[in-house]
Every structure is written in C-alpha cells, then in structure tokens.
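Q: Sequence in, structure out?
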Amino acid sequence: MNKFLPLTILSIILSLLMSCSSYALVRYDGPYEGRIIDADTGQPIKGVVVLGVWNTETPSAAGALTKYYDAMETVTDKNGEFTIKGRGLLFMSNVLPMDVLIFKAGYSYYGLMTWKELKRAVKTENNRLIIRLKTLTMEERKKQRTPDYPSKAPQEKIMLMLKEINKDRTERGLEPVN
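A: Exactly. Output:
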C-alpha cells in the first residue's frame, strides 16, 4: 500500500469540508433585534419595515458566486421594537450572515447592508441596536432614491417592503414598482 494514500485521502476530505462551508463550520444565526426611534424626538417609530435577506456563497474558479437564499420581514411595534429570528444553528453552511434593509415612508432609511455594517453605524444599548431615522421633508424625500431591495427575492417574501416603498413613491408622485 502506498504510504502517501492516507495523507492524500485526508487532504481530499479536508478540501471538501473547506469548500462546502465558505463562511463558518458551525455558527448560530440570529436573533436580530433592535429598536427604531425618531432621530429628533427620540420617540419610537411604529410600522417601520425591517427586511432580512440571506444569500449563499459558493466558491468557484472565477471567484465566489452569491445567490439569493431566503428573506424574512417584520414591522416595528408601538415601542419601535423588532425581532427577526434568523436561520438558527447552521452547520457547514454556505449561507452568509443576514443583510438588512430598514425603511418607512417619510423617513431616512438604511439600505441593504450587512447586519455587521449596521451594528457599526448605530448605537447599541443592552446588546440591542438603537436605530435613529430622521423625519424628512417632502423636498428631502424627492431627492432621496428609492431603496434597493433584493430583486431576486420572491414577491411574497418582501410584500411589506414593496408596499412601503410603493406608498413612499406614490406620495412623492412617482410610479409604484412592480
């Protein structure tokens, strides 16, 4: 028997394990929690849509390929609080951490960004994000772009976000998105 055979087999197994999991071997995804308040008054904002989007990343010879995986959305309650439960325990998964989009007509918004980027951009209290949105005048709203949303997500997964975007576009005198 070839003395290098066990080493070769071990190398192949390790290579396969590493290529199957482009993010982490084992991790827990979620929950994602926060509170959204008015930047000027400090009061909670009810009805803000929070959309969480997950993508997968698959290694290839040309670089990593990213593909839509799933989405969950919720709205803030009367206290401005929200929770997205996340994907739970992930073992050898190529599912990337959640991207988030936070939007309500009439306010500034946080465009599609990673949760980690959002955490760096906002204040944290007791391990919860405190997200401040500024009330915008109609002039400011007309200058603001419509937020980018995950166009590859099935419509039924992003209905709340599309409804809020269309409300904003209609108020600004623009055509709704499909």
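The two ends are 64 Å apart (CA to CA).
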